[in-house]
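Renewal narrative, Specific Aim 1. Our central claim is that a sequence can be written position by position from structural information alone. The example that follows is taken directly from our test logs and has not been curated for this report. It begins with the structure tokens describing the chain, in the order in which they were read.
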């Protein structure tokens, strides 16, 4: 059955310059981060149709970097979700911390890279909806005229109308830049497990500023793991400037509890 099957070629670039060299020579390569989604795929290997060129991203130092300034925080795409939580604990928006904590268990989060969670085509992670409402930017390295270019794209530029995130072919997610905006209200809930009950699961992420008793800068994303996510400026506008039926003193109490 497997007689004409040959082992894939695994490329192991040690830095982004080597990655550029490899992807230029093998533009059809599959990217391998921690492999948790790839290994899970039916018929990934052994399979006669499997991609024979694989680029392992785990040795590229630049993809593990973390840096911050007053306005934004940047993570390399090979940072795992627990590392994000640890290094970003005091600065990341609370809605993002809630989203990260909702994904798998501690040991599973250790095996999920930020880039893999975003790029996984078979599954829309709740992270994407949250990144969308936080106006996150994604740095892509992509081939154009046989040269590797890099550019930060607002996530909204990478999302199709149906809520699917589409990356240009042969593009590597190298960094993610998250603005440190201060929203004083957030709501996050996941109904049913996105992996175990994929077709029933839904995640709602909502942020806004509560000023006096009205809402401003409202952003809402609803994620369906097997379809994509929904977020619309029109819906956000409907929620903006809503007068909430609460006393200002009760509102202060709510905010203090968040
Ligand atoms: C047991 C288990 C539970 C899970 N639970 C959840 C959950 O609750 N919520 C949730 O959102 N997800 C969950 N996941 C899914 C998880 O987010 C994906 O499996 C994710 O893709 C894993 O990342 P990885 O680093 O292993 O990626 P890989 O499996 O290595 O890659 C996944 C895909 O992304 C591509 N890719 C990887 N890195 C990059 C990059 N830097 N640039 C471009 N493309 C890239 C690969 O080519 C591949 O197509 C779970 C997974 C497992 C195994």
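The sequence written for that structure reads:
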């Amino acid at each position: 059955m497997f007689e004409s099957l040959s082992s894939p070629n695994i490329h192991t670039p040690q830095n982004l310059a080597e990655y550029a060299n490899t992807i230029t020579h093998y533009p059809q390569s599959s990217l391998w981060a921690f492999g948790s989604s790839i290994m899970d795929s039916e018929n990934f290997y052994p399979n006669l149709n499997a991609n024979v060129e694989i680029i392992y991203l785990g040795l590229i130092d630049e993809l593990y970097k973390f840096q911050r300034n007053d306005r934004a925080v940047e993570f390399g795409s090979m940072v795992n979700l627990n590392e994000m939580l640890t290094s970003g604990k005091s600065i990341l928006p609370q809605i993002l911390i809630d989203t990260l904590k909702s994904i798998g268990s501690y040991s599973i989060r250790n095996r999920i890279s930020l880039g893999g969670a975003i790029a996984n085509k078979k599954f829309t992670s709740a992270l994407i909806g949250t990144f969308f409402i936080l106006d996150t930017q994604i740095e892509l390295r992509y081939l154009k005229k046989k040269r590797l270019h890099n550019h930060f794209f607002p996530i909204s530029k990478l999302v199709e109308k149906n809520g699917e995130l589409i990356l240009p072919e042969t593009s590597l997610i190298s960094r993610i830049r998250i603005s440190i905006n201060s929203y004083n209200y957030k709501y996050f809930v996941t109904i049913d497990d996105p992996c175990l009950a994929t077709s029933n699961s839904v995640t709602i992420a909502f942020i806004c500023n509560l000023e006096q008793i009205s809402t401003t800068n409202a952003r809402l994303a609803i994620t369906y793991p097997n379809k994509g996510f929904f977020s619309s400026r029109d819906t956000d506008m409907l929620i903006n400037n809503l007068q909430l039926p609460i006393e200002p003193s009760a509102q202060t109490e709510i905010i203090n509890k968040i």
